[in-house]
Amino acid sequence: MAKITLDNLAHSYLPNPKGEEDFALKELNHEWNDGEAYALLGSSGCGKTTLLNIISGLLRPSQGRVLFNDRDVTNSPTAERNIAQVFQFPVVYDTMTVWQNLAFPLKNRKADAAYIAERVGKIAHMIGMEAELDHKARGLTADAKQKISLGRGMVREDVNALLFDEPLTVIDPHMKWELRTQLKSLHREFGHTMIYVTHDQTEALTFADKVVVMYDGRVVQIGTPEELFERPEHTFVGYFIGSPGMNIIPARIEGNKAHVEGSLIELAQTYGKIDGDVVIGVRPEYAKLSSKVGLPVRIRRVEDVGRHKIVRAEFFGRDINIIAKEGEAIDADMTRVVFDPARVNVYANDWRVTGEAA
């Protein structure tokens, strides 16, 4: 296992980048703890795979260093980094059996035959392929091949890190849940440093100890699922995490009040002068319909999703989402929405501003 340090790291695919906008991966300075499970989360093109490939050695960064346990590996090839990487699409040896595919990394390192048999049996059970061990990989489905690829990546116990690049894309939904659970179990048992790239927030939040949220080539927040939900440090985090995402509303802040389209919203904190493009962010879970007080809204529709209802409303041409409990009444005179003051976040130029207790 390894502590991974990203020191002044950045990358551009252009030969002569002129400015920050030319960098696919903007400058990073982060330290990821030995033995923790991380998820790189963000939309397509945000830099997740670029960062993963730099860590694995498949790509050399334009600037900065990568260190494993304080040893500079920036110029070390992949083979010398002692990592296992699983890609988005399955990479298997078609002419080999499932058993031979799983055993290959251990045989390559001349491991003891009894140990190989024990590890292959354990991993085959984990990926649900015990019955196919003697089958050639050639005739298997794409999701079965990806399970082999996952298993081969996890069969070694001595790796510095396990890297996963959207590995469950071709796996059916039920098996996705099973494999994520197994990956978590494997992490708890062996304590590997794991990095898992995904654009799926459910995968990230259920897999990782900490989620690394990326936006436009930059890491905008690293935190636990609770931290990302309760205190998004960037408006993208608030929008991307949650279903529906955070409500974003332009506002003017004075002390412990937000002025929004002629209405006042109480805040739990007091703020000084804030420059830039100022908005407030409120999760739909902390918004509540009212018939007497709050911002005036027009309800467009109500979606019953079983455990709760999602109220889709409009406020001065801007969408607002409210989550109501399943048994909560929604009457025709409920044309206003109120926010829990303690759950209102304030942002300037997309970054969260911290106030003082009111």
From TrEMBL:
Family: Belongs to the ABC transporter superfamily.
Main location: membrane
Organism this protein belongs to: Oricola thermophila
Record-given protein name: ABC transporter ATP-binding protein
Lipid bilayer topology: Peripheral membrane protein
Domain ABC transporter: 4-241
Entry's localization field: Cell inner membrane
Keywords for the protein's UniProt record, in alphabetical order: ATP-binding, Cell membrane, Membrane, Nucleotide-binding, Transport
Coiled coil (residue ranges): none
Keyword Nucleotide-binding included in the entry's annotation: yes
Gene Ontology MF annotations: ABC-type ferric iron transporter activity; ATP binding; ATP hydrolysis activity
Gene3D superfamilies membership: 2.40.50.100, Nucleic acid-binding proteins (2.40.50.140), P-loop containing nucleotide triphosphate hydrolases (3.40.50.300)
